[in-house]
Design goal:
The complex is a heterodimer.
Chain A: E1 5-7, E2 10-14, E3 19-24, E4 32-38, E5 45-50, E6 56-59, E7 62-67, E8 72-77, E9 86-94, E10 97-100, E11 104-109
Parallel strand pairs in A: 2-11
Antiparallel strand pairs in A: 1-3, 3-8, 4-5, 4-9, 6-7, 7-8, 9-10, 9-11
Chain B: E1 5-7, E2 10-13, E3 19-24, E4 31-37, E5 44-50, E6 53-56, E7 65-68, E8 75-79, E9 88-95, E10 105-106, E11 110-114
Parallel strand pairs in B: 2-11
Antiparallel strand pairs in B: 1-3, 3-8, 4-5, 4-9, 5-6, 7-8, 9-10, 9-11
The chains are: A mainly beta, B mainly beta.
C-alpha cells in the first residue's frame, strides 16, 4: 500500500512568519512528487511538480525541496500572508496513480 | 473551455438510487483522473484514463462504481445503488500528456450526499 504522510495536519501562524511543512512518501518506484494548494471553495491548484533527487523549485515566496532517496519533500513559505491560508497537498506519483496525502491546513492570522 | 468542468455541482440521492457525474476536461488533455474526497481527508485515487483507455481502475471501491471516457474527452463516473458511505466530493482532474511530470488541473468537484 502506497502511503503519503503530511505533517503537521494543521498550522496557525502570524502574518510575516516563515513556515514549512513535510511530505513523506515511499522511496521506491518514484516517478514524481506534486504539490498543490487548495483554497476553500476553489479547486486544487498545482504549485510544483518535482522529479529529480535534490530538486529545488521556487514560485514567489513559496519553495520546495525533494529528497527521493529518503522519501521526503519540504514546502517552505517565506513571510506568510493571510492569502496563503489554504490546504497544501502533496502527491506521490507511482506509475499511473497519483497518491495524495491528507494535507496541511495553514491559517495565517493578520 | 478555460478549465475542467464538472456537473452537477451538488447532488442529493436517496440510498439505492443510481447517479452519474460528468467531467469535461481541458480540451486536448490526454490524461484524466477521478478522485473521491471524504471530509478531512486528502483525495483518494479512483481511476485513470489515457485518452479512451482506462489504464488503472484499482481505486474504485466496489463494482457499483463504473467510469467511462468513450471518445477520449468527456468522462462519466457512475455509481449504482448508492450507499451512505458514498457521500463525498468527487474530483476530476486532467493533464496535458502521458508524461508523469505533468501537473493536474482540477475541476470544482461534485458534492454527493446520499440520504
Amino acid at each position: 500500500i502506497l502511503n503519503v504522510e503530511q505533517s503537521p495536519q494543521s498550522l496557525h501562524v502570524q502574518e510575516g512568519d516563515s513556515t514549512n511543512f513535510t511530505c513523506s512518501f515511499p522511496s521506491s518506484n518514484f516517478y514524481a512528487l506534486h504539490w498543490y494548494r487548495w483554497e476553500t471553495a476553489k479547486s486544487p491548484e498545482a504549485l510544483f511538480v518535482m522529479t529529480l533527487n535534490g530538486d529545488e523549485k521556487k514560485k514567489g515566496r513559496i519553495s520546495a525541496t525533494l529528497n527521493t532517496k529518503e522519501g521526503y519533500s519540504y514546502l517552505y513559505i517565506k513571510g506568510s500572508q493571510p492569502e496563503d491560508s489554504a490546504t497544501y497537498l502533496c502527491a506521490f506519483r507511482s506509475s499511473y496513480k497519483l497518491i495524495f496525502g491528507s494535507g496541511t491546513r495553514l491559517l495565517v492570522r493578520p | 473551455g478555460a478549465g475542467v468542468s464538472q456537473s452537477p455541482r451538488y447532488k442529493v440521492a436517496k440510498r439505492g438510487q443510481d447517479v452519474a457525474l460528468r467531467c469535461d476536461p481541458i480540451s486536448g488533455h490526454v490524461s484524466l483522473f477521478w478522485y473521491q474526497q471524504a471530509l478531512g481527508q486528502g483525495p483518494e485515487f479512483l481511476t485513470y484514463f489515457q485518452n479512451e483507455a482506462q489504464l488503472d481502475k484499482s481505486g474504485l471501491p466496489s463494482d457499483r462504481f463504473f467510469a467511462e471516457r468513450p471518445e477520449g474527452s468527456v468522462s462519466t463516473l457512475k455509481i449504482q445503488r448508492t450507499q451512505q458511505e458514498d457521500s463525498a466530493v468527487y474530483l476530476c482532474a486532467s493533464s496535458l500528456g502521458r508524461q508523469l511530470n505533468s501537473p493536474l488541473h482540477f475541476g470544482n468537484g461534485t458534492r454527493l450526499t446520499v440520504t
